[in-house]
Amino acid sequence: MTPENAGAIEETVLTQREGRIAVITINRPQVLNALNKQVLTRLKKVLEEVESSPEIGAVIITGAGDKSFVAGADIASMAEMTPGEAREFSRLGQETFGFIGSMRKAVIAAVNGYALGGGLELAIACDIRVAGENAKFGQPEVGLGIIPGFGATQRLSRLVGPARAKDLIFTGRTITAAEALDMGLVEYVVPAAEVLAFARKIASQIADKSISAVAKAKSAIDRGLDLTLEEGLKLESEEFSSCFSHPDQREGMRAFLEKRKPRY
To answer: What CATH architecture does domain 211-257 belong to?
Structure first.
């Protein structure tokens, strides 16, 4: 995978391979990386390409520039939508962000500046979130006479609890990175200039591990959220035992016993 350059026609989503890490950049800085149909369609295609690559162990999603991760959906493209067009747009966003959850690879959001509306929905669809101290988070849709349409009414409540999700969605208020960390909306807050480097550090730690094992752990955690504890533990046991039919288990344990780094 090589960097994609803008050329004559701007590339709205850039991809770059850094060893076993793929960095995906939403590239519309002139409109604060706002999401439209073209961006979502391109992002889904890029995510599918990354998922199919056996050489990629972890993924970072970020936004171009230092002002915004993603400031939301593109209001100009939404203003005159019919209900049918709005439903189609919502489903496209949900399918694109939902694909992140179905990926075998761990996905890290590197958030600088604004993560509002669809931008916050993209961030919470990722597995881990790293925020710059300058990051701002919010779901301002009700102020526009609409509600979140790319998953926030469902994912946000699962992440921070229904009361906090209702507070953010009903008020449409914007919160700081420190507030987001306090409520469990993000996992790390670092200086703005260090966000991508910190995300790379985490991605490197993950990509250095067995891709198969990470995928099984992700599956057990995410699928278990909709199960009872008893059902979840059964799922964990099945995923655990299935590791023993994969060569990574033999290599990992052999490397441990031989006091060397495993070669996955």
So the answer is: Orthogonal Bundle (1.10)
